[in-house]
Amino acid sequence: MQTADENAYVIEEFRPIRHDILAAGLRAEAGDPHRIAGDPRLLAWLRVEGEQIGVLALDEAAAAAERLSTLADFTQDLVLEKVFADGRSVTWPRCLDRTHGHPMVVALDDGRALWRCPRDARLVVPIGELEA
Ligand SMILES: [Zn+2]
């Protein structure tokens, strides 16, 4: 059962991640909230470039930064696994240091949800604030 409130909640929760994917030139959205028996989380479909690529799970009970980092983690896993451009998997989000070939990783630091370079912990950007 999908309610208007759940739909608005999913869109709002996904907003920072949508922004960060858009910074990479891809359109993404989360929608069609639903629940399955035995899972207390709210589930939603992730679409990238109009294509459903997987299911996101939102833990409404967690603290805000934790919710955001978890959602970013889920999204990143799906994007790295399922999104291709010109036959190659997409590196998302690209490291702030463009000479690094790797994507950044999700980190929780002092109550903030961040993207962080896996090699240089000084390279960080809050999730939702990536620039193109
Ligand atoms: Zn890096």
Question: Could you explain how this protein is built, in words?
Answer:
- With 132 residues, this protein is of the alpha+beta class.
- It has one domain.
- It has two helices and eight strands, in the order H-E-E-E-H-E-E-E-E-E.
- The strands form three sheets. The protein has a three-stranded antiparallel β-sheet. A three-stranded antiparallel β-sheet has the order 6-7-8. A two-stranded antiparallel sheet has the order 4-5.
- Zinc ion binds next to loops.
Question: What is shown here, in short?
Answer:
With 132 residues, the chain is an alpha+beta fold.
Using brief descriptors, characterize the structure shown.
alpha+beta; 3-stranded antiparallel β-sheet; 29% helix; binds zinc ion; 132 residues
User: Strand order within the widest sheet?
Assistant: 1-2-3
* Mean pLDDT rating: 95
Q: What does the largest sheet look like?
A: 3 strands, antiparallel
- By helix and strand content, what is the structural category? alpha+beta
- Compute the number of helices: 2
What order do the helices and strands follow?
HEEEHEEEEE
Compute the separation of the termini in Å. Answer: 37 Å
Low-confidence residue ranges? none
Q: Helical percent range?
A: 25-40%
Query: In percent, how much strand structure appears in the residues?
Result: 25-35%
